[in-house]
Write a sequence for this structure.
């Protein structure tokens, strides 16, 4: 009988990082379902494709680093990165765009800094920002919402979407509907609002120049789907409420202030909250624990900073959707925030 | 039931809810103790000093007998848990995380379980606090909650920490452990009575019992006991929510009172003392029944034992006996833990004994407590910070511990970590956080130790370097002084050797000259000082000046020696009552007294009124020392009578309200008396006179009998116009004295000498000093010289100071111009010898005084 010699504690909660990551991936499903419902198969295909690329890149790097593959791949962090990228990129993004974004995110933004837990910047957002700047045309070609139920003939089928994303497959994959199908692309509501020009906000919405109520509703529901997933994660204590709430609150507050001063030129808060990737960003991007602030107070500052930056870039910056840049900019600041927001320890009078 | 509702409870940050696993061991009541084959009792069971064994191998002991006494303040006694024989006192492995071995007393029970004589306290309320603490300390009671701190120390808080709340820790928050639960269920009265005794010692305002909600039977039992003893006003049973680690002292205090124990402090600092329920029962047993701490309740649990439960264990029982009693399944036993699963430590073997702090033995299978999963990378999720009860940042501490940035870890309050294990329990990456913190704490401790020892070594090194440097500096200074002295003497030598007549000058003459120069220098200084003084120049100064001028004007041939002496005497008078200065001056140069005498003599001979004036003024009393007065008197009086008069005056002077006579003066007066009474220098009974003394006495008497003429003294060469060295001048003077030159040149030279002999004075003093060892020899020579040449009386310089004014000075006696060179040389030598002897004897005299 040889007794194990080990120090306390001897108990541990069941579960590991992989479980956390899987849970997060599960939580994206409502949003993904909304996206698929309203915008076709594109996002789903992209999610799968990006995940494959991510796992492959991670395996490659692990082999190069001589690490045990199964131990590191089963933390599912690569898959999560792929999923998030697949959700962020336009549904008809070419395969090579997703490939570049994902490969860059995994290899450069994550493993080059030491692997999981060591990266200072959100890998998915690094990949997104890279392709956004490098391939602006492709990144601004968003599919118009097309519910499968509205016009069956007009919606793109799975095969069509697949061949749109992977053009080299078009010869192989036989399309159900005959003939080439021109996808109808349009700007996102945010994008449209940004480039509305001299038109006032009221006119913009009334004229439905770009954004029809249906498409706006589609975008809204997608956001609500992501919101639901995020709320579930808070319930499961995967992360605390501080970052999402502070981010959304800051964004709402700013948009309220500016909108109330000048309603004709500034979008009303709902557009900011439910348009674009705000909800996805609030619950899945900004809460990435590796790159966010750690202390409670720090998280509040971090979230608020992201919200403020999102509004600023959206209103006065060049880009319609600013979640990626806002998150990356706050990733810079997170260590500083951590340094100055240490909680007061038990028995001490004040923070140091 | 009228226990207080727990609405006013607070909470602490964080905490976890691990599965309790307590039901397995609460199914049966506490079992009676079993008697094992042997009992192993470690002498050190807690922090503090080791207990000292009071028995030897082979002694038979009774149950409850003290077998080891406490040493020091933080120490507890050890008692024999049963009757038997001490079979060994040897090193044995300890049940401790370190796995080290220490001395243990091993007892073999004899099966009879005979009690020793017990000394219970009849009514503890009659005893005062210190006696009760003594009783508790003698009973060997330590904290039974886990840390095992000696209870008597904890019950004795400092004077400036009044206790207002006494808390009994009945939380037992750790999974698996149920020892306190069963104890409270079955012996609640003892718990409350023990609490009463502790409350009597500490006199708190209120007593709180903190107990978790998962022990309803125990809560009820306690409540009934409190009511039965009618202590509901004092004691409150507080139910607290189930959360690990509520049973931590700091956390329990925070829950029950909302206060936080200040960093680096103890609960007594905020007026709170916390004890375990088991400790309270032990206190009750010790005071009321007189039973020392020899057993405790321990939970035996885990899936590897077929039967789980609580048992009252005799301290020192090997765990093997307990496990066998509870049907251990050896093939399933994977991990043996003493304590709970969160904070317990693993044991290497089952042969280890139960100690005072053993509250649980957890025999776990592999499935129950699986081996830890491999550590993954930290994803900075922050769950650890959410769980930490001390509100630390475990994540940061982990980063710093891993990268060995211990100073940052310390600034993030690493030392506040209570190692409860909540952070590593929640960590999704299975990082063994607590082990990292233990590692960091150990490294910090080692670094601290190295730093203090290197600081200490550095301090010692610096002190040593400073000391060596100082010694070097002193040596250097001495070397320099010696070099200067040598240089000066060399100069003097070369100066004298230039004169053909003085080719055969011996070093003693040089010393004499040096002494003269020193005296001159001092005179010059004094003159300068006199000029500088704000007060109007004293009459003495004027008189001295006049005396000096008169000396200058005076035609009589004087030796430079005489003149110098005269000046010195004047200066000494100026110094007034500062006899010590004079004494010092005399010590420095043996020739001062000679000078003084010369001056006095000259004054007497050449200008008696002046001297008399001086004397009168002196005696008129400016608080002059007896020395000065004696001098004056001697100057005024005759030669023969002067000695006696001096002694008389000396004695008279004592009565005068003058400044205290220096020992010097008294001794000198005494010696003068002796010398006067005994013309022949012989040893007197009272004081063993040296040859020097004898010589002095002889010379003194000789001097007294004759009246050497002061005028005869000075030869006045004055041939050379250029400034001569003191030595040269002296030699010249002597030669001139022999040839009977005028005193004018002497005066001139004397005048010249005043200014330039300052530098020589040092050399003179050094030479005089270095010549001291020769004094005996010199004295003998001087004696011979004196006897040989009665005319070549040396100056009185030999004679006890100031005694003979007249006698003195001038070594030059023969005023014959027709003296042959040989005679001259002889005279010179004799003079020098006498002078030297005189100087030395004076110096010795002074020294002796």
């Amino acid at each position: 009988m040889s007794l194990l010699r080990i120090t306390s504690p001897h108990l541990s909660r069941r579960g590991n990082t992989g479980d956390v990551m899987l849970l997060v991936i599960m939580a994206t499903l409502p949003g993904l379902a909304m996206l698929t419902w309203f915008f076709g198969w594109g996002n789903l295909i992209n999610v799968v494709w990006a995940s494959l690329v991510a796992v492959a890149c991670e395996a490659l790097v692990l082999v190069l680093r001589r690490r045990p593959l199964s131990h590191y791949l089963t933390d599912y962090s690569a898959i999560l990165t792929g999923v998030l990228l697949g959700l962020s990129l336009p549904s008809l993004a070419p395969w090579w765009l997703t490939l570049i974004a994902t490969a860059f995110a995994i290899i450069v933004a994550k493993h080059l800094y030491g692997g999981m837990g060591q990266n200072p910047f959100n890998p998915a957002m690094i990949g997104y920002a890279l392709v956004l700047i490098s391939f602006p045309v492709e990144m601004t070609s968003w599919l118009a919402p097309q519910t499968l139920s509205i016009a069956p003939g007009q919606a793109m089928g799975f095969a069509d979407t697949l061949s749109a994303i992977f053009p080299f497959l078009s010869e192989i994959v036989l399309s159900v509907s005959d003939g080439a199908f021109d996808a109808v692309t349009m700007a996102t509501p945010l994008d449209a609002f940004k480039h509305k020009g001299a038109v006032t906000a009221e006119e913009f919405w009334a004229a439905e120049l770009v954004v029809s109520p249906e498409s706006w509703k589609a975008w809204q529901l997608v956001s609500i789907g992501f919101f639901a997933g995020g709320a579930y994660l808070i319930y499961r204590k995967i992360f605390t409420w501080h970052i999402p709430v502070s981010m959304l609150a800051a964004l709402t507050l700013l948009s309220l202030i500016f909108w109330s001063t000048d309603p004709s030129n500034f979008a009303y808060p709902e557009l900011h909250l439910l348009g674009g990737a705000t909800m996805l960003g609030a619950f899945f991007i900004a809460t990435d624990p590796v790159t966010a602030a750690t202390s409670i107070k720090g998280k509040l500052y971090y979230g608020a900073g992201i919200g403020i930056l999102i509004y600023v870039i959206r209103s006065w910056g060049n880009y319609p959707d600013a979640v990626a840049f806002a998150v990356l900019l706050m990733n810079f600041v997170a260590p500083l925030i951590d340094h100055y927001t240490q909680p007061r320890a038990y028995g001490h009078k004040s923070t140091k | 039931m009228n226990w207080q509702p727990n609405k006013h409870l607070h909470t602490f940050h964080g905490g976890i809810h691990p599965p309790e696993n307590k039901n397995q061991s609460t199914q049966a009541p506490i079992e009676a103790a079993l008697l094992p084959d042997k009992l192993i009792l470690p002498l050190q069971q807690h922090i503090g000093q080791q207990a000292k064994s009071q028995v030897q191998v082979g002694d038979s002991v009774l149950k409850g007998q003290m077998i080891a006494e406490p040493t020091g303040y933080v120490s507890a006694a050890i008692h024999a848990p049963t009757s038997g024989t001490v079979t060994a006192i040897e090193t044995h492995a300890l049940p401790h995380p370190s796995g080290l071995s220490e001395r243990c007393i091993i007892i073999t029970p004899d099966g009879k379980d005979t009690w020793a004589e017990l000394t219970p306290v009849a009514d503890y309320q009659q005893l005062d606090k210190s006696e009760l603490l003594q009783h508790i300390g003698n009973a060997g009671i330590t904290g039974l909650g886990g840390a095992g701190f000696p209870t008597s120390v904890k019950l004795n808080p400092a004077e400036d920490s009044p206790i207002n709340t006494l808390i009994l820790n009945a939380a037992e928050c750790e999974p698996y452990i149920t020892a306190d639960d069963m104890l409270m269920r079955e012996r609640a009265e003892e718990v409350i009575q023990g609490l009463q005794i502790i409350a009597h010692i500490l006199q708190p305002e209120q007593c709180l019992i903190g107990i978790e909600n998962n022990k309803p039977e125990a809560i009820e039992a306690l409540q009934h006991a409190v009511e039965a003893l009618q202590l509901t006003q004092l004691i409150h049973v507080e139910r607290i929510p189930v959360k690990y680690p509520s049973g931590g002292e700091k956390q329990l205090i925070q829950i029950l009172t909302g206060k936080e124990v200040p960093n680096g402090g103890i609960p007594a600092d905020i007026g709170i003392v916390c004890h375990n329920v088991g400790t309270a029962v032990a206190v009750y047993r010790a005071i009321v029944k007189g039973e020392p701490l020899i057993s405790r309740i321990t939970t035996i649990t885990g899936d590897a034992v077929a039967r789980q439960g609580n048992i009252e264990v005799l301290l020192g029982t090997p765990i093997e006996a307990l496990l066998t009693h509870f049907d251990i399944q050896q093939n399933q036993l994977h991990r043996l833990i003493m304590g709970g699963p969160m904070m317990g430590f693993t044991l290497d073997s089952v042969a280890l004994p139960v100690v005072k702090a053993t509250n649980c033995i957890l025999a776990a299978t592999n499935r129950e407590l699986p081996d830890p999963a491999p550590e993954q990378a930290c994803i900075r999720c922050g769950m650890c910070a959410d769980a930490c009860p001390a509100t630390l940042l475990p994540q940061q501490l982990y980063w710093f511990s891993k990268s060995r940035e211990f100073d940052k870890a310390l600034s993030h309050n690493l030392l506040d970590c209570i190692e409860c294990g909540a952070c590593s329990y929640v960590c999704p990456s299975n990082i063994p956080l607590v082990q990292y913190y233990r590692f960091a704490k150990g490294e910090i401790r080692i670094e601290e130790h190295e730093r203090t020892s290197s600081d200490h070594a550095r301090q010692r090194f610096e002190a040593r370097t400073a000391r060596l440097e100082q010694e070097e500096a002193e040596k250097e200074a001495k070397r320099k002084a010696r070099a200067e002295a040598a240089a000066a003497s060399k100069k003097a030598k070369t100066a004298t050797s230039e004169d053909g007549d003085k080719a055969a000058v011996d070093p003693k003459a040089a010393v004499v000259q040096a002494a003269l120069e020193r005296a001159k220098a001092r005179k010059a200084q004094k003159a300068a000082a006199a000029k500088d003084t704000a007060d109007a120049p004293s009459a003495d100064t004027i008189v001295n000046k006049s005396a000096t001028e008169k000396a200058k004007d005076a035609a009589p041939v004087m030796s430079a020696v005489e003149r110098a002496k005269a000046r010195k005497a004047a200066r000494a008078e100026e110094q007034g009552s500062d006899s010590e200065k004079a004494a010092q001056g005399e010590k420095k140069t043996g020739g001062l007294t000679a000078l003084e005498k010369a001056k006095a003599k000259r004054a007497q001979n050449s200008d008696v009124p002046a001297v008399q004036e001086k004397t009168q003024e002196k005696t008129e009393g400016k608080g002059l020392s007896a020395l000065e007065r004696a001098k004056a008197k001697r100057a005024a009086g005759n030669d023969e009578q002067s000695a006696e008069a001096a002694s008389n005056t000396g004695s008279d002077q004592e009565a005068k309200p003058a400044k205290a006579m220096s020992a010097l003066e008294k001794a000198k007066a005494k010696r003068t008396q002796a010398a006067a009474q005994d013309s022949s220098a012989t040893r007197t009974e009272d004081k063993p006179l040296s040859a020097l003394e004898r010589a002095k006495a002889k010379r003194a008497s000789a001097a007294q009998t004759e009246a050497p003429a002061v005028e005869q003294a000075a030869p006045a060469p004055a041939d050379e116009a250029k400034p001569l060295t003191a030595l040269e001048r002296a030699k010249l003077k002597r030669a001139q004295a022999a040839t009977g030159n005028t005193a004018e040149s002497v005066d001139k030279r004397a005048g010249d000498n005043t200014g330039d002999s300052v530098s020589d004075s040092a050399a003179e003093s050094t030479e005089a000093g270095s010549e001291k060892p020769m004094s005996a020899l010199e004295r003998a020579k001087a004696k011979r010289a004196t006897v040989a040449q009665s005319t070549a009386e040396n100056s009185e310089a030999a004679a006890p100071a100031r005694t003979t004014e007249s006698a003195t000075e001038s070594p030059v006696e023969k005023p014959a111009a027709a003296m042959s060179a040989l005679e001259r040389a002889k005279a010179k030598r004799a003079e020098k010898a006498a002078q030297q002897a005189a100087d030395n004897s004076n110096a010795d005299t002074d020294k002796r005084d």
